[in-house]
Amino acid sequence: MTAYESPQLTDLYQLTMVQSYLDHSMEDKAVFEFFVRKLPPQRNFLVAAGLEQLLDFLTHAHFSDDELEYLASSGYFQRNLIDYLSKFQFTGQVDAMPEGTLFFANEPVVRITASLPEALLIETRLINLLQFPILVATKAARCRLAAADKRLIDFGLRRAHGAEAGVLAARASYLAGFDGTSNVLAGQQYGIPVYGTMAHAYIQAHDSEAQAFQNFAVSQPNNLVLLIDTYDCSRGAERVIELAKQLKAKNQAIKAVRIDSGDLGHEAARVRTQLDRSGHPEIGIFASSSVDEYLIEQLKQQEAPIDGYGIGTNLTTSEDAPFLNCAYKLQEYAGIARRKRSQGKATWPGSKQVYRHLRSNGQLDYDQLCLATETPEQGQPLLQPVIRNGKRLGAPEPLDLLRQRVKQQLSMLTPALTNLSKAASFALKISPSLQQLTHQTDQRFHG
């Protein structure tokens, strides 16, 4: 077990609260829900992701002897907590939106039903495992909307905030429609296609750019994408053309050139002209360097002849929306609905379900937030059972299935919701029964 798989990867106050719950016999069933309070200004929708990693964590979480010894020596805890943690395993229920589902503000994405201490202990890691993949998957989906059918590759590992983030970002971006990643470990772990070209250092290490291209052609005859902007794009393109003539006799082809600096639209247009005039329309143009959905849309408007993009920093850090206003809140305890009423952070009480309603043309119309016990005549329930009594109900969904789900869901968005820069609202209707329960809960706890 690695440190990232341990439930000890948590905040201290989770453990101090559990200590108090045990001391006062507060171990009845609780319902917690993970949701996003408010979408970032730059986001009209979010993509559910990270569920697979959460389920893996929940079904394997336990405390090691070393961790228990550390906690016992910390001075914060009594023997009853240490004994409880020594036997800890998740035995509760999980209902969740399938990965790849589009969702909106105040909709429960994951619902946990378990004993109060058990449900609380997993809070920090649950938020940690869900927020980041959601951010990256949403950013990737927006890039896919902007790029249409152009190739998109995750180049973000080196700028990711840690090794785990780099691997999770590769999976989340592929799930949301990217074609592959440069991350070799992610390729091995998740079966994601891996892509790579060369670095400027490779060109600089040779005495001439032409020699660098020739050597790479010998070593990578079937993966020949040449970086042409180390010194000058136009001259680099001329050397590619010269090499292409030499390789033709060997029945070898150059797949593409990569431009990694400057005005990408201008440079791509100039290089495209050079390649076409020399009789090489088959050589594609791949661009990188501070690419995101906004730049892709701008280049599309310019009709820049770019066939694909490598997207790194802006994707892996979700640069324009680097965090979610998300929460994991208690909604029911001991059979009684609960709700938070803090200003700007109020919640809807009780165990809930989201029903999705579509227009006649298949586009999203509105979502309805209902009690989990309600069964409306229309609408599709989004939360599905995935764990019962601590056991998974099915095998992990293949990534290809998740990709198809995202693609299908993106096709359901209205034009307003696909806009990358203008905010658009999506209606979340509250069922009468939930409104009534909210009133009753307020009366019960606040008079």
TrEMBL record:
This is Nicotinate phosphoribosyltransferase. Residues 152-332 form the Nicotinate/nicotinamide phosphoribosyltransferase domain. It catalyses: 5-phospho-alpha-D-ribose 1-diphosphate + nicotinate + ATP + H2O = nicotinate beta-D-ribonucleotide + ADP + phosphate + diphosphate. It is an enzyme of class 6 (ligase). The lineage of its organism: Bacteria, Pseudomonadati, Pseudomonadota, Gammaproteobacteria, Vibrionales. Transiently phosphorylated on a His residue during the reaction cycle. Phosphorylation strongly increases the affinity for substrates and increases the rate of nicotinate D-ribonucleotide production. Dephosphorylation regenerates the low-affinity form of the enzyme, leading to product release. Pathway: Cofactor biosynthesis; NAD(+) biosynthesis; nicotinate D-ribonucleotide from nicotinate: step 1/1. Its EC number is 6.3.4.21. NCBIfam families: NAPRTase_put, PRK09243.1-3, PRK12484.1. It comes from the Bacteria. One of its GO terms (molecular function) is glycosyltransferase activity. Belongs to the NAPRTase family.
